[in-house]
Amino acid sequence: MHAQRGVSLIVSLLMLIVILLLGTSAAQIALQAEKGSRNDRDRQVALQAAEAALMDAEMDIEHSPDSARSRSHLFSSEDMQGFPESGCNAGIGNIRLGLCAPPLPDAEPVWASVNFLDESGNANSVPYGQFTGASFQSGAGPLPARRPRYIIEPLKFTYKGQSAEMPTVFYRITAIGFGMRDETQVVLQTHYRKGEK
């Protein structure tokens, strides 16, 4: 009889260690992929909320479907009535809420200093539906954590051959949307010109 040396036991243990390491790394890869897809979905929810806020602001400028809340008369292609000289109008009950001063040359843009997270009575950004009567579900589950918000700034533009005394007024809309987590935020901007009647 030959003496047993136990080589097969060592080989079996090494194979089990290799299989354990492969299983652990596969589980980690699967968890990372799931986290990545969850974060991507959260960002997509925030992006869609910000896009909805841009459309709500365009309706606010053009013509609100809710005539009782409409402030479309404040937006004109010739003047900037209702816009402050500096900063942004605040106050939830204020009809001029979220209307911000025209940008000054070489100054920080007004939208960069607005606290879009403020939902108090002194907020200076407009919550979705404030002037259009539109509703937006938010809160729990796959919904955004809170309603999107926006501000509007007037911008003067002079076309070639147009009198500098009668510039065309465009509006820069800055909107923020939130994901399912409050920390997930997407900010979008667009320029909009009110249609001629």
Automatic annotation (TrEMBL):
<feature type="domain" description="Type 4 fimbrial biogenesis protein PilX N-terminal">
    <location>
        <begin position="5"/>
        <end position="54"/>
    </location>
</feature>
<dbReference type="Pfam" id="PF13681">
    <property type="entry name" value="PilX"/>
</dbReference>
<dbReference type="InterPro" id="IPR025746">
    <property type="entry name" value="PilX_N_dom"/>
</dbReference>
<dbReference type="InterPro" id="IPR025205">
    <property type="entry name" value="PilX/PilW_C"/>
</dbReference>
<dbReference type="Pfam" id="PF14341">
    <property type="entry name" value="PilX_N"/>
</dbReference>
<feature type="domain" description="PilX/PilW C-terminal">
    <location>
        <begin position="111"/>
        <end position="194"/>
    </location>
</feature>
<protein>
    <submittedName>
        <fullName>PilX N-terminal domain-containing pilus assembly protein</fullName>
    </submittedName>
</protein>
